[in-house]
Specification:
single chain, mainly alpha, globular
Length: 281
Amino acid sequence: MSVSIDTIATADPAMPRWSLDSIDWGALRRDVVVDDEAMFYLITAASFVEATTDLYTQNLLDYFEDDAEITAWLRVHWLPEELQHGRALRRYVQLAWPDFDWDGVYEGFLPEYSAQCADDGLEPTRTREMASRCCVEMGTASYYRTLSRMTDDPVLSALTGHIADDEVSHYKHFYRYLKKYQARDGEHRVGIARALWNRLMMIDGADSRIAMSHIYREQHPGQPFDEQLYREFRRASRPLIQRHFPHRMCVQMLLRPLGLGPLSHRLAVPVFEAVVRRVVP
C-alpha cells in the first residue's frame, strides 16, 4: 500500500483505534516465522526500542513545555501509542519465539540504551526539531511498512501494518507543528534540510546496534557482538528488505518538510527515490 504526499499532508490525522485485544493472536503462523532469524532480530530489536519511548519523550516535553497543544498531544496520544507498539511487539515475540527470555534480555539492554537516550541532542530551533521528528516518523513508518510486506504471517503483517499507520499519523502531527513554528520563527529551508540530514545520520545509529548486541549475546552465549557481525546481518537482509521497502512513500515524507514548489517537488521525487533504492537498508 503506497501513501501519497497529498494523503500525508491533508488527511484527517485521527487514525482508527486498535489495541492488543483487537489482534487475532490465535491466527499467528509460528511455523513461518520460528526459523526466520532475520525477522526475529528485526522484530525483537524493534520491541525493545518501542518499549522505552518514555525515556526520550521527556526530552520533548521539556523542550516544548510552554506549548500546551504539543505537550498534551505528546502525553495523551503519541506516548501511549508508542508504548502500545512496544507491548504488542513484545507479545508477538513471546508467542512466536517463546524460548527467548524477553524480560531478562530487556533488563540488560535498558541501562545502556537509557544512557544513549540521555545524549540524544535536540535541534537548536523548534522548527528544526519538528523536522527532525518528521524524519524519525518517516523512518519508522517505512520500517514497519516493510515488515508488514515481508512476512507471510497474517498476525505480524496486520500488527506491523497498524504500527506503520500510527507512525504516518504521528508524522502528520509533527509536520503540522513544524509549519506552525516555521510561520512564527521564519526558519529557512536550509536549516530544515540540515535538521533532516542530522537525523538521517542517526537513523542507522546506536539504537539497533545496542538492541541487537544484547539479543545476539543471549542467543550465542560467550560470543562477542561486533561491528562486523552487524554489517553482515545488514548485508544479508538487504535484498529482502529492498524488495518490500516503500521507497516512494519514504521520499515523499522526507521531502515534504522542505516545502518545495510543485515543479521542484515533482522533479526531486524520482531523483531521491533512485538514491534511496541504492542506499536502503
